[in-house]
Fold:
Amino acid sequence: MRISLHHGLPAAQRHTAARLYWQAFGGKLDKVMGPEPRALAFLERVMREDHAIAALDDDGRLLGLAGFKTPRGGFAGGTSADMRAVYGAWGGTWRAMILRLLQGEVDNDRFLLDGICVAREMRSHGIGTALLGEICAEAIRRGYTAVRLDVIDSNWRARALYERLGFVAVSAHGIGALRHVFGFTSAITMVRRVR
Structure:
C-alpha cells in the first residue's frame, strides 16, 4: 500500500480525523471531554484543517495525522465559546478551565507538534515516522531550527519513537493534582534540531 502525505486535512475526513484523535488521546482526556459523542462533536467543530498533515492511502482513506501549533492557533484547540456550544454553559465553562491548566504556550522559537495519531491497525507501518519527518520539513520551510513536542510520562512507545528519530528530552513538567483527572504524572518536553 502506498501512503501519501497531504498538507491540510481534507474536509471529507473531519469525522475520521476526530475519531483518530480521540482514539489516541481519549484515554487521558475522557474525564474532561467525555462522553465520547460530545468529544467527537467538539473535535469536529474545532479542528483546523490548515494546521495538519494527513497520511492517506491510495483510496483517500485517512491513516494518520499530525497537528501543529502556530501563533495563529493549534490543530485541536478551540475556544471557550466552542466548549459552551458543545457542552452547554456550565459544562463548557468548567471543561475550558481545566483544559487551560493543561495546555502549553505557543513556542515562538521551535515548531510545536500539536498531536500525532495513527489508526490502530496501521501502527508499526512507518506512518508516524513519515508524519514526523514531514513535520520537521514543514518546520524548516517556516524558518524554524527545531521541533518541539510533549509526551506524557506513561507513553513509553511514543517516546521511544521520538528518541529513535532524534528527539531529545529537555525537561519534564509535573501536573500536580491534575494527575487524578488525566491519569499521568508529567509531560516530557522533547526537541529535535532540524538545521
